[in-house]
Amino acid sequence: PELHGGEIASSDVDILLVVKQSRERFIDRFIEFSDFFEGLERGVDIFVYTQKEIERNDIPLALTALKRGKILFER
């Protein structure tokens, strides 16, 4: 099942990861977490933001994920 939008066989999955804090640049955070999603049958786009970045409410993908997405893991 899709989280948002239409699903087709070649659809990828967008994953929003929220970390408490990070000194890493956005792209470096992506690289740090990308290995966890290798080998999946579908393509995965990973977006890693800090809690502060999410709280600013200016990231359209994050706003959509928070409204329509599903929490897969939380601690």
For the largest sheet, list the strands in their spatial order: 1-2
Q: What is the β-strand count?
A: 2
What integer is the average pLDDT? 84
How many domains make up the coordinates?
Answer: 1
Span between termini = 24 Å
Query: Which word captures the global form?
Result: globular
Number of helices: 3
Q: Per DSSP, what share of the residues sits in E-state strands of 2 or more residues?
A: 15-25%
Biggest sheet details: 2 strands, parallel
Helix-strand makeup class: alpha+beta
Rg over CA atoms: 13 Å
Q: What is the N-to-C succession of helices and strands?
A: EHEHH
Range of helix content: 25-40%
Low-pLDDT sequence parts: none
Organism: marine sediment metagenome
Protein name: Polymerase nucleotidyl transferase domain-containing protein
InterPro entries: NT_sf
Features of the shown structure:
75 residues, alpha+beta, two-stranded parallel ribbon, NT_sf
Give the structure's gist in a few sentences.
With 75 residues, the chain is α+β, with helices and mostly antiparallel strands. It has helices at residues 26-34, 51-55, 60-68, and strands at 13-19, 44-50. Strand 1 (13-19), helix 1 (26-34) and strand 2 form a beta-alpha-beta unit.
